[in-house]
């Protein structure tokens, strides 16, 4: 019997190694797997490259990981926010590397990794700073920039429900990057509000099929009272 | 010159959004447009974080931290709305499925180049989000901005001095003093705020303008 | 009020012009929009380029469209089947053009069109007849072929339920190409077993959001009794 | 030489599929492998038309024309299975998410080139389906074929004469007389059907073979 559920957050983040590339789901705090991030901080892996839409909010979650000095580089689209003070300070001090990627290219590059494409010509960013030094091409009268896949060793994501095969469904706008990050990491680790028996999730509504998920951990349904 | 308030600008943009349009309203000033879309007109608001059919702000106390817009403010979803992941959301944007996006701007050039994400100032931490995807992807890109900076310089320029968001992507500019189209023949003033004259406008904009009001502008 | 539902199949296929590129959903007969195809035959458009996984089965649906001599070219992955006699005869007689595309490249090229990419480097087909004359590139030690988007003027697809905004859900393996073709056509026309009131489809389970659909027509629930 | 029947070949392949594997069984002979997967072992069968967790053939009368496999035969879905569209399905294949695919073959070369989609015969109507995606995408590509053609030629060849499906993609070949791995050091015989000798095998295969049985082959 295959059972991808693990019984502790510690077990969930086991094996994340120094220098790993780790995708972290979420758009701001919606969909951010805060408990998994806390477990990663406790686990101790350092020199991480983080892929996330943002660069942390306030002092919790991703911001706390940054504050613990575990992150060497962040690949994101929107670091600067009203409450991104942790990142801002590290960045200004030259203590974190930033690769700024337009949000749609971030999504498309993650998808390209998950789908096994070698590279994509995307229109986004053509003629801008963010395409400097990149190969471009005119196709049918429109300009495109060549962008490469973003793969990860691990993905930490948050879903609403999961089962022992790793099937996942999400909740509202917390879905955001979860389903695509799950496809692009060697080991995808999902925190869910509830682990349900196999067969409980309707095969028509499963958003992330279990093939993309290696570990599932339940964190209780504190965040999903409305589900 | 007579100037529209920010709310009047939002109301002006809202008037030009036809029923049935798929629309993305950028963070900041453009978000205000939603307040002026007539209730009887069905317009589909898209938010890049995976919502289509976005509704109004929730009642106080009804906020859901997992139901937010691209500006990370609480929103609601209309009946008929849907949730999807970031890949699908940006396919909608980049794939030309949005009819209109409305963006703020630092500068717009005479050829429709847009600068709205980065001042280029030393020490500034850049953040781009979905602006570049909207700029290249939406069928029509509307910009909404005051014509002048706080220090009195025209934000409508010959060539942008700020880093670009997109090249030749802007279709129409709603300013506080006039509505101006970017056309193959250059910038064309479609509408002047009541009391403003074309000559007055041309004096403060360092790019040649033409005057060609739209018959059905309202 | 926006109402994308139309009351007749005739209205559903109105405007499909001679020479149009038309995507048709389905994998074999599962998910094939048979009633829309019949309506297209009655409508009379000719010199069509058809994009489908197959090239018709038996004498109905897509095979009937071929038999009516309305198709100039077919883009597909698997034309030859036990019951593809209509296509076989036309092909052998030189009366239909075939662009053979590996199934995954067909899907990826349709997705690229829907997502606004200019081109993609795909590993599928490298070193084979189907990549002859195409640009290739080695990326990170692996070989890729450059493939371009496949767009369409119209897509005819079959779904289980739809609403007046064009939101769709599908049924079992009849989903196949429907959701991706919907993204890649100027006008997507969906036949559904049932039109439901707006709000009946759970926003979490809508597979094709209405933005990708222009017309919806109900054909009764003959095929969906198990739904 | 002693030869396995087609069912024995299927049984042999099935033995090598570990619990928890994500597996795609190609059309034709490979489909038989499903019949020999031990019921107590949870193995996830993928079908490129959008199924994961495919089950057995339905009872007569229970067939659903919208629940079919890639060979367009009626199947069932296990509890825990899921449906998805062709884009997602081929992302699973091309993106390296399948552990194993099992494909039939016309020919396999000494370096693991695969030919299984087209005889190249004049007048033949080619059809490729998902074979090329499986060949490049699965972590391990197993081929399942009789060693000899009906006219007695080796299907294991120095270089394929039929049009290729994929270059250097095959990892292991299950034939009716032996199991052979494609390795950086060439073709290595891992297992001979009982009663067959290596020399005998080498005599009919026009490519140099090595013998290196796997300790834990069964």
TrEMBL record, chains A, C:
NCBIfam families membership: pcaI_scoA_fam
Annotated organism of origin: Crenobacter oryzisoli
Transmembrane keyword on record: no
Alphabetical UniProt keywords: Transferase
Superkingdom of this protein's organism: Bacteria
Protein name per UniProt: 3-oxoacid CoA-transferase subunit A
SUPFAM superfamilies noted in UniProt: NagB/RpiA/CoA transferase-like (SSF100950)
The keyword Disulfide bond appears for this protein: no
Alphabetized InterPro entries for the sequence: 3-oxoacid_CoA-transf_A, CoA_trans_fam_I, CoA_transf_BS, NagB/RpiA_transferase-like
Family: Belongs to the 3-oxoacid CoA-transferase subunit A family.
Pfam families: CoA_trans (PF01144)
From TrEMBL, chains B, D:
PROSITE patterns the UniProt entry points to: COA_TRANSF_2 (PS01274)
Source species, domain of life: Bacteria
Recorded family membership: Belongs to the 3-oxoacid CoA-transferase subunit B family.
Keyword annotations from UniProtKB, A to Z: Transferase
Matching InterPro entries: 3-oxoacid_CoA-transf_B, CoA_trans_fam_I, CoA_transf_AS, NagB/RpiA_transferase-like
Organism the protein comes from: Crenobacter oryzisoli
Coiled-coil zones: none
NCBIfam families with a match to the protein in the record: pcaJ_scoB_fam
Official protein name in the record: 3-oxoacid CoA-transferase subunit B
UniProt KW Transferase keyword: yes
UniProt KW RNA-binding keyword: no
SUPFAM superfamilies given in the database record: NagB/RpiA/CoA transferase-like
Pfam families named among the record's database cross-references: CoA_trans (PF01144)
């Amino acid at each position: 019997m295959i059972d991808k559920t693990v019984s502790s957050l510690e077990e969930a983040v086991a094996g994340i190694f120094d220098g790993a590339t780790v995708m972290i789901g979420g758009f701001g705090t919606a969909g951010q797997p805060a408990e998994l991030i806390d477990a990663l901080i406790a686990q101790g892996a350092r020199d991480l490259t983080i892929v996330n839409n943002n660069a942390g909010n306030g002092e919790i979650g991703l911001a706390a990981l940054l504050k613990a000095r575990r992150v060497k580089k962040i690949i994101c689209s929107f670091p600067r926010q009203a409450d991104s003070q942790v990142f801002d300070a590290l960045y200004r001090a030259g203590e974190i590397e930033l690769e700024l990627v337009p949000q749609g290219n971030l999504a498309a590059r993650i998808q390209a990794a998950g789908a096994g494409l070698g590279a994509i010509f995307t229109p986004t960013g053509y003629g801008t700073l963010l395409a400097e030094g990149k190969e471009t091409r005119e196709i049918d009268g429109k300009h495109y920039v060549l962008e490469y896949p973003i793969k990860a060793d691990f993905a930490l994501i948050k879903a609403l429900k999961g089962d022992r095969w790793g099937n996942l469904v999400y909740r509202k706008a917390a879905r955001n990057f979860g389903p695509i990050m799950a496809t692009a990491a060697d080991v995808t680790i999902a925190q869910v509000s509830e682990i349900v028996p196999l067969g409980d999730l309707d095969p028509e509504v499963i958003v992330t099929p279990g093939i993309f998920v290696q570990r599932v951990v339940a964190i209780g349904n504190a965040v999903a009272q409305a589900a | 010159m007579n100037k529209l308030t920010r709310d009047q600008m939002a109301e002006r943009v809202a008037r030009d959004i036809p029923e049935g349009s798929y629309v993305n309203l950028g963070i900041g000033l453009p978000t205000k447009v939603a307040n002026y879309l007539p209730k009887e007109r069905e317009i589909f608001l898209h938010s890049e974080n995976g919502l289509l059919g976005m509704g109004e702000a929730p009642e106080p106390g009804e906020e859901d931290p997992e139901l937010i817009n691209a500006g990370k403010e609480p929103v609601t979803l209309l009946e008929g709305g849907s949730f999807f992941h970031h890949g699908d959301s940006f396919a909608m944007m980049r794939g030309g499925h949005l009819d209109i996006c409305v963006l703020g701007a630092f500068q717009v050039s005479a050829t429709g180049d847009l600068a709205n994400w980065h001042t280029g100032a030393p020490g500034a931490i850049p953040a781009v989000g979905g602006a570049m995807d909207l700029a290249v992807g939406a069928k029509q890109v509307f910009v909404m901005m005051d014509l002048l900076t706080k220090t009195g310089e025209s934000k409508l320029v010959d060539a942008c001095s700020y880093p670009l968001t997109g090249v030749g992507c802007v279709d129409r500019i709603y300013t506080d003093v006039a509505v101006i189209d970017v056309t193959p023949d250059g910038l064309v003033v479609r509408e002047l705020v009541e009391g403003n004259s074309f000559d007055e406008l041309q004096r403060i904009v360092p790019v040649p303008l033409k005057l060609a009001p739209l018959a059905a502008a309202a």
